[in-house]
Request: fold
Amino acid sequence: MRLATWNVNSLKARLQRVEDWLTDVQPDVVCLQETKLADTAFPAMTFEALGYATAHHGEGRWNGVAILSRVGLTDVQAGFDDDDAPDKEARLLWATCGGVRVASAYVPNGRALDNDHYTYKLGWLARLRAHLDLHDDPGGAVAVCGDFNIAPADADVWDPAVFEGATHVSAPERAALAELERWGLVDVFRTLQPEPGLFSWWDYRAGNFHKRHGMRIDLVMASAALADRATYAVIDRNARKGQAPSDHAPVIVDFAD
DNA sequence: ATGGTCGCGCAGCGA
Reply:
């Protein structure tokens, strides 16, 4: 099974590129983030024509997550399934695809360490961990995929010194990610690709992509049993090139059956 | 780290 995650930064603006990429890459399951669409505007027919069943959880102008699958798509759950008030933002979607419990996650950015949004981010990650405790089996096949807005280690940042005191690299965020690892999730890309300096996001500004000034913040977090089946992982930098790219590149992982 | 750039939607915010 070929699984991918991609923050497309508006599916409306990116649809043709996504279609072309699906045709080229032939993924079986795709998690999309930042669709920036209402559910009524989601182009389900376009993906259906390419062989994909879909689920979308959107709100309109901001956020929005989707799952595409050509290996089955059942038991869809939007957001957190717990007793708390529903998340006000459309950032999480679950479905079972090809025997894997898949989540498409768009973790809050955090903005700055002293910002309320940072508190929301940490709470959101804790709630994700609690959701896993409630509903999922760390011994099963689980893949939480998406834009985590966290660089797991300094090797995932082009210049760690530049980001001291900033979000995406702070100890509490990394601790929240480590809590997901404690539950049983593994950063699959990192297990297959040990070298530093491999990034999935580059700011549009200042020619950062061409200067290789990026971060690896898009992750496939797989349960150990699933991670053991991973045979190949790549960040598709080609998708960040050319006309009208997203500022994120897709992360692709292949799993043996 | 953000002057830089995008997307949304038509000013300025969010990333």
Notes: The two ends of chain A are 7 Å apart (CA to CA). Chain A has a mean pLDDT of 97. The first helix of chain A runs from residue 11 to 25. The helical segments of chain A are 11-25, 44-49, 116-135, 171-183, 188-192, 224-227.
